[in-house]
């Protein structure tokens, strides 16, 4: 139950009973993410002052130039989760393959796997625009005491036990769900404590903001082009306002508060879109649905899609449910 001025630590303990298998493991996991996020926040806030901006000189499995902060965030989350004996495996945008965490006694006794995008919106790091971290948590399906396998990571989104994001923006917030609604906590930098600032976050059913990289317009499917035209029409409560930050976390966060739709569709250049199903789309879809919104690939519910690869991409439409349904109708009729 949410209380004003409740700290994240208190909220986690008071809501532990909501977790299936309420053994405290998942609470400790969320607490570790809370800690790692503070460390990354500290680095992000220094971007520009110290030499943590720019490319690191490596290319990740996506073919993208890794930014120094991508690597710092990746290592910070992996080390923090590993050292706290709560996960048996981690998958990350910045690692080609999943990491097996044996545990202190090499006995593979932990029960949760974490999939993450350690730094989302990397193209915005050097230009002082908000970026984020995205995480998704599953209970393993292979027997405890055995090494995790790829099957533990390729679970459909509807089996997530927790998901969330951290936004490093005008303030730093941690927003997450364990399947009992969505709550947002703002970091008080002076105290280093997160406080419940956004209890029970809800996507308005309708909105007036659309977020898409219109620079790709000519490459979009007809249905998306028609929906963008619909958003721009001088009719009824339209035209909508176009807002696109280029950081998935920030665009979805804004649209969740104000009402709106975010789209990263397929295109003739990238037939499967750009965003990764496992550690970008599934966690944001879980958050959206828990906040009364909707997430689709244009035709199907994102969280019902059975993943086949660790870094697979998928077209993504997410936001206010009536707006997503409208966009889908344009896709289906095109
Ligand atoms: O520059 P584009 O093609 O519009 O892509 C922007 C999208 O790509 C991303 O930056 C991809 O995430 P990463 O930065 O984690 O690789 C999203 O945050 C964002 O919505
Ligand atoms: Mg990302
Ligand atoms: Mg990233």
Automatic annotation (TrEMBL):
It catalyses: beta-D-fructose 1,6-bisphosphate + H2O = beta-D-fructose 6-phosphate + phosphate. Residues 204-332 form the Fructose-1-6-bisphosphatase class 1 C-terminal domain. It comes from the Bacteria. Mg(2+) 1 binds at residues 93, 117, 119. It is an enzyme of class 3 (hydrolase). Mg(2+) 2 binds at residues 117, 120, 280. It is found in: Cytoplasm. Binds 2 magnesium ions per subunit. Gene3D superfamilies: 3.40.190.80, Fructose-1,6-Bisphosphatase, subunit A, domain 1. Keywords: Carbohydrate metabolism, Cytoplasm, Hydrolase, Magnesium, Metal-binding. Its main location: cytoplasm. Substrate binds at residues 120-123, 213, 244, 274. Homotetramer. Belongs to the FBPase class 1 family. HAMAP family: FBPase_class1 (MF_01855). This is Fructose-1,6-bisphosphatase class 1. It comes from Aquimarina addita. The gene is fbp.
